[in-house]
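Good morning,

Attaching, inline, the backbone tokens for the sequence recovery test we're adding to the shared suite. The designed sequence is right after.
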């Protein structure tokens, strides 16, 4: 491969402590879009007793203008500069190094380091962006106190921000001004941030549990000031929650959030100065859906929670990424569960895990939650590190109990505050606080792959016993052919014929966590006078695949009576999945609604007392991706047809019920949880109606058009818009035009307009996506826009996976182009091609050809090279 020269692997086992500490860094930055000058003064202290022959500082794309050691200009023999940084020869024990470099923010399209976009200067330093700003030991265990002085023209950049507290400001000659910021907490460079631009602030305050007042500021473009209240309210709720649930208080006097349209990720937890993708800040009922509002609540909380899990206790090295991400995702999931419906939140968490992490764990990009090696760390911001990492923390919470878990986190913060630590340190704190032995649990962090748990239950009517046997196995993953058993907490209840939970032991407990530590184990429950149905893995108590061989009747029964929301939902999913798979096996045959599924859906439709958001979850079908996951070879077209057919059958069968729901749930827009659930359910009713048979559907399309026109909020408008644009039988060109004209000045709304079209399985879909890429509003430099088209396109299954390979070839062309602009985003978007082994031979060939074509690209980035290399070693 072209990039093999810089494609070397970094191994966890190679970790070396720092030879030098950097105690303080003072940055002086003269901002200019074309040529920014950065002067850095580093105070270095040698740690090792032996003198070092050389000291390497990371640096990328920096133009060195000046270098001084202890105030003296350094001769050229005293240092060397190459593509990876600056090497100092014969460094003293303690010294001050001063460098002045030039960088080019406007040309920085990778959006890593300092960049200039949308008229603002912004930074993104995680994971390794700081080395694109100045020469530094750019690794998370290098903790230093930062002082930053920003200079910029007053006119274009009235606002100058960095981490910590603003300690001084003033005017420079020629219309420039400056501001100096000090962060009292030593931090790694990945948490550094600075921002400059013409920004307006929404301000508020928060009083901490100890009575300190914190200034809260959200910086946005002036016209977006009225769209920040959800973000501000979420921030205050998160701050309170972390005090109540974890005893964690905010530490600085100021907490700032800046929103931008140009951002590679969701948001970044820079100390005291979060930088956010605008998608997770801005919302008004006219422009944002209920899902957007919930996304803001959870991402604002996530980044805030990092202040303790990530910032105050940080990472020793990037292999420990899940130490901050898994723990913080768990914390934000629990926060959202407390703020909203716990059952609905859990279903959503599991759906995301299964959609993104299970496939990753089953493919060539599989890696442990704590990886052993990487080439480009940007490629490890994965569902495994985040979502599976959160599931491991959740299992610890289950195994140790709520109080035990809190004892563990208290000890973890007490021991490690202000330090850069490892996952091992976290697990040890959990052990020590609870006198627990988690030695076998550690396997979860080291071993990739999703365990399969098989259940077998026998009821003995004579002995009145129920015997449950659970066994586990984990399929091999790249580099790990043999797997060990892991301790799997399986939450269990046994449900009798009256729909009640049977007592599981003499204490009368009706629910238990069984821990399956070995390959197979059997449990026997006594005193069971009646037959029981096992409700296993309640609340999805472990990130595993479960085979629980129940008949349809039992599943239908659980779907109606199980008091565990997750398992109730799962029972209906299983029934629907079975029905779709039957349709895949016998394509074209007329399906009828299986009676077990019919009963479960009917009971849900009739239960008007149930939380509408949960009801909507129960009535939704498994995604095409999830169905595909269950097949040895993913039958793209057959799955799409079978799922649409089932939608239509359910639409017809319950036509009257859907119609009643649709009319009964109509309401004026409100933002409370109940109203959100009602909207969700009503829009689900509309979608079943539109998918019902042709005669009725035409009529329902009129309803959808009406809803599109009359909606007083984006949730309802977009639901109707999506149905009209994506339904294969209806022409919606006029609606497309109308939507664009109305919202063209709202980038986040136009992202939705692009994405919904890119996902539409229309006859001319590929041509249409090509048209989207040349649309005047399309911009290769804005990641949100690129994801809206190319990311959405990969979810347009029948088109992306077209049997003639046209979708793959087209997609690879675009990734090639994107790699020259934004390698990080290109690599992330390319991952669907890594799943080529899951498809038939014809598609496999086309997908590997696309990968090969990418591998042959000149100037292939390290990011994309690594993904291709792991996805298809044969492409080299
Ligand atoms: Zn995070």
């Amino acid at each position: 491969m072209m990039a093999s020269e810089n494609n070397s692997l970094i191994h966890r086992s190679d970790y070396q402590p720092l030879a030098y500490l950097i105690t303080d860094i003072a940055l002086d930055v003269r901002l200019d879009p074309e040529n920014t000058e950065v002067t850095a003064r580093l105070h270095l202290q040698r740690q090792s007793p032996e003198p070092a022959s050389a000291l390497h500082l990371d640096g990328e794309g920096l133009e060195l203008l000046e270098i001084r050691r202890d105030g003296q200009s350094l001769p050229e023999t005293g240092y060397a500069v190459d593509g990876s940084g600056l090497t100092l020869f014969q460094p003293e024990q303690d010294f001050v190094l001063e460098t002045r470099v030039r960088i080019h923010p406007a040309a920085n399209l990778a959006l890593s380091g300092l960049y200039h976009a949308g008229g603002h200067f912004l930074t993104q330093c995680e994971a390794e962006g700081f080395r694109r700003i100045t020469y530094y030991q750019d690794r998370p265990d290098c903790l230093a106190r930062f002082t930053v002085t920003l200079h910029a023209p007053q006119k274009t950049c009235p606002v100058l921000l960095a981490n910590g507290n603003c300690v001084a400001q003033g005017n420079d000659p020629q219309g420039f001004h400056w501001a100096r910021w000090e962060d009292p907490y030593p931090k790694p460079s990945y948490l550094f941030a600075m921002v400059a631009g013409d920004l307006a602030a929404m301000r508020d305050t928060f009083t901490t549990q100890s009575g300190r007042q914190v200034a809260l500021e959200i910086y946005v473009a002036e016209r977006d000031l009225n769209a920040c209240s959800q973000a501000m309210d979420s921030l205050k709720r998160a701050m309170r929650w972390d005090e109540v649930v974890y005893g964690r208080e905010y530490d600085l006097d100021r907490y700032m959030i800046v929103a931008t349209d140009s951002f590679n990720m969701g948001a970044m937890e820079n100390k005291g100065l979060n930088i956010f993708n605008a998608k997770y800040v801005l919302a008004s009922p006219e422009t944002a859906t209920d899902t957007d509002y919930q996304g803001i609540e959870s991402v604002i909380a996530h980044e805030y929670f990092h202040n303790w899990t990530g910032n105050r206790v940080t990472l020793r090295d990037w292999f420990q990424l899940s130490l901050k991400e898994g723990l913080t995702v768990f914390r934000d999931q629990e926060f959202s569960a407390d703020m909203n419906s716990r059952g609905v939140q859990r279903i959503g968490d599991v759906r995301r895990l299964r959609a993104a992490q299970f496939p990753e764990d089953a493919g060539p990009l599989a890696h442990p939650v704590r990886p052993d090696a990487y080439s480009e760390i940007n490629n490890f911001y994965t569902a495994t590190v985040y979502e599976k990492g959160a599931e491991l923390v959740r299992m610890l919470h289950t195994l140790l109990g709520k109080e035990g878990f809190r004892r563990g986190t208290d000890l973890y913060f007490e021991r490690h505050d202000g330090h850069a630590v490892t996952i091992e340190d976290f697990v040890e704190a959990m052990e020590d606080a609870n006198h627990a032995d988690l030695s076998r649990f550690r396997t979860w962090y080291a071993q990739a792959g999703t365990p399969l748990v098989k259940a077998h239950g026998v009821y003995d009517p004579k002995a009145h016993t129920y015997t449950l046997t659970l066994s586990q196995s984990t399929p091999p993953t790249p580099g790990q052919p043999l797997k060990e058993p892991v301790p799997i907490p399986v939450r269990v209840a046994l449900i009798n014929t009256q729909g009640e939970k049977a007592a599981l032991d003499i204490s009368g407990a009706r629910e238990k966590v069984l821990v399956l530590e070995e390959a197979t184990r059997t449990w026997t429950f006594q005193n069971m006078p009646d037959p029981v149905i096992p409700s296993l893995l309640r609340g999805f108590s472990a990130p595993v695949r479960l085979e629980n061989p129940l008949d349809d009747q039992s599943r239908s029964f659980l779907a109606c009576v199980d008091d565990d929301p997750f398992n109730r939902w799962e029972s209906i999913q299983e029934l629907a999945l079975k029905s779709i798979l039957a349709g895949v096996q016998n394509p074209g045959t007329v399906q009828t609604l299986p009676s077990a599924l019919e009963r479960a859906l009917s009971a849900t439709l009739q239960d008007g007392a149930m939380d509408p958001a949960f009801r909507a979850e129960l009535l939704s079908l498994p995604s095409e991706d999830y169905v595909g996951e269950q097949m040895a070879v993913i039958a793209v077209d057959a799955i799409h047809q079978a799922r649409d057919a089932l939608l239509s059958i359910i639409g017809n069968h319950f036509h009257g019920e859907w119609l009643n729901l649709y009319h009964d749930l109509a309401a004026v827009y409100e933002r409370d949880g109940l109203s959100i659930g009602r909207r969700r359910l009503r829009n689900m009713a509309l979608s079943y109606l539109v998918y019902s048979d042709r005669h009725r559907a035409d009529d329902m399309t009129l309803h959808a058009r009406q809803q599109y026109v009359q909606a007083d909020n984006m949730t309802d408008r977009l639901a109707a818009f999506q149905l009209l644009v994506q339904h294969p039988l209806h022409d919606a060109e006029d609606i497309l035009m109308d939507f664009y004209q109305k919202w063209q000045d709202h980038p986040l709304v136009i992202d939705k307009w692009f994405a919904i079209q890119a996902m539409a399985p229309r006859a001319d879909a590929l041509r249409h996506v090509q048209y989207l890429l040349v649309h005047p509003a399309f911009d290769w430099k804005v990641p949100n826009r690129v994801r809206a088209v190319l990311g959405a396109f990969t979810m347009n299954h029948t088109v992306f996976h077209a049997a003639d390979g046209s979708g793959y070839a087209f997609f690879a062309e675009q990734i090639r182009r994107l790699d020259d602009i934004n390698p990080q985003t290109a690599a992330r978007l390319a991952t669907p091609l890594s799943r080529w082994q899951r498809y038939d031979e014809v598609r496999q060939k086309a997908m590997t050809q696309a990968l090969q074509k990418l591998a042959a690209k000149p100037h292939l980035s390290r990011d994309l090279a690594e993904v291709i290399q792991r996805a298809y070693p044969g492409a080299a």
